[in-house]
Amino acid sequence: MTSSRFDLRGKVAIVTGGNGGIGLGMARGLADAGADIAVVGRNEAKSKAAVEDLKQRGVNAIAVATDVTDKAAIEAMAARVAKELGRIDILINNAGMSIRKPPHELELDEWSKVIDTNLTSAFVCSKAAYPALKASGGGKVINIGSMMSIFGASFAPAYAASKGGIVQFTRACANAWAPDNIQVNAILPGWIDTDLTRGARQQVSGLHERVLARTPAGRWGDINDFAGIAVFLASPASDFVTGTAIPVDGGFSVMA
Ligand code: NDP
Q1: CA atoms within 13 A on the CB side of 92
Q2: Average pLDDT, rounded, for the chain
Q3: How far does residue 58's CA lie from ligand 1's centre (Å)?
Q4: Is the pLDDT of residue 202 over 90?
Q5: The pLDDT of residue 2 is above 70
């Protein structure tokens, strides 16, 4: 039986990018703790499969096809989740992508696409969910940063800017919404085996070995490594935790 501190039964969570990778790992964690889930992403086949996976855990789940760079679509998504699932208690801003080029080769439209997908979407989704979170008597917003919220990388100028921005946006919202009993925190994943990093490993030679050598845990992360932190930050267990940015990185950020 889930301890009541970590019990999410009766809660409703939106997970952007919840149809795969780290988002699905977090959605599974929330579902196992009892939350109903709205899976937000563009790929409808992947979202349908994720919804089936989550329903098998005994909760209700819906897919809401949404491009998180589209403000009107996000507002419609939030309204649909509140109507169909009855409320919104938890928002995970996880959708993200990267374009890997050094700054002198990156085009402005590429810069904008990364910032819009990774950072502006978190603002628009948070703003769209805020009235329902407040109406629920409080809530939890979890934003997904990166090791590039901390470190630089020659091949990821826009990505690093977006993920640095996510941490400061998290701190701003934590301050703004504390009076509404809404806690806002960020998770900073290390190097995790997903579609995103499969692409990076193909494009950046030697990356796989460098990550293994640089990570004290001696392995790449797995999407299941994100279930526990998501439940903690979504549950009453973290009610006095706000504005933080917690690395989930096998020690990558503290490697001497
Ligand atoms: P994946 O590529 O596996 O997943 C990305 C998710 O984002 C997909 O579900 C995708 O769904 C969704 N997405 C992307 N663009 C949009 C869009 N415009 N509208 C709606 N959904 C979108 O990557 P990860 O699981 O690795 O990444 C998840 C988050 O974790 C990202 O924010 C990433 O930056 C971050 N992260 C990942 C790390 C890693 O090592 N893997 C390390 C640090 C941070 P769909 O295609 O259906 O739209």
Answers
A1: 38
A2: 97
A3: 25
A4: no
A5: no
Verdict on whether the full-model pTM lies above 0.90: yes
Contacts of 165 (CB under 8 A, 6+ apart): 115, 119
Exactly one of 159, 177, 232, 252 is catalytic; name it: 159
- Show the domains of the chain with their CATH numbers: 4-248 (3.40.50.720)
Q: What is the mean pLDDT of residues 73-98?
A: 98
Cβ of residue 197 lying under 6 Å from some atom of ligand 1: yes
* Phi, psi (degrees; rounded to nearest 5) at 100: -95, 100
